[in-house]
Amino acid sequence: MKNFLKLITLSAIVAVMSACSKDDDKIKIQGHDQNQMMGIMHQMMAKLDTMKMTKDPDNDFAMMMRMHHQGAIDMANLELKSGSDATMKQMAQSIISSQQAEITQLSAFLKSHPPHGNDPDFDMMLMDNMKKSGKQADLQIINGDIDHDFAILMIGHHQSAIENSRLELIHGQEQSMKTMATNIIDAQMKEIGQFQDWLLARGNK
């Protein structure tokens, strides 16, 4: 009887290990330096690093978000060009349309709004958020599948925009920028949920 139980236990262990091995075979990882989506992310972060802060929260939020939105548009354009999933392509087109419209608004605001604030704490927190976002992106597992990588990286990209928008709501003075910050939070939280649902339905592959 003992030998029979041992045999059953051993068989169960072998079955589990075999299943794990099969699952592991399905996991693909691509180096970040070879990944197209990550390349766009790194280019965006490099541009953000060169942004000259003015200590005016509304002005600096607008400058940062304009660059941030352009990064999302560049990633979405790559999804439209090289992706294959209809849902991801639809989301990419939606992101391009909405964020291009916001870039137009941000540019108009910057043109008509000379910096006049003095809030160095906002700039410091803004930079900290961007650095944290860059580190988080570098921790993501990406596999070279355009649809997957677009979804996984856009989640972090949106989370960064949401954190910075929340800072604008606390430190900003201009109602137009505070309204945009609120709209960004609402829209991108919804999109994060859509990206997460899509990834979970695919088993994050």
UniProtKB/TrEMBL annotation:
Record PROSITE patterns: PROKAR_LIPOPROTEIN
Q: Which domain of life is it from?
A: Bacteria
Q: Which residues belong to the signal peptide in this entry?
A: 1-21
Q: Where does this protein have coiled-coil stretches?
A: none
The record's keywords, sorted A to Z, are:
Signal
Q: Where is the DUF305 domain?
A: 58-199
Q: What is this protein's record name?
A: DUF305 domain-containing protein
Q: What is the lineage of its organism?
A: Bacteria, Pseudomonadati, Bacteroidota, Sphingobacteriia, Sphingobacteriales
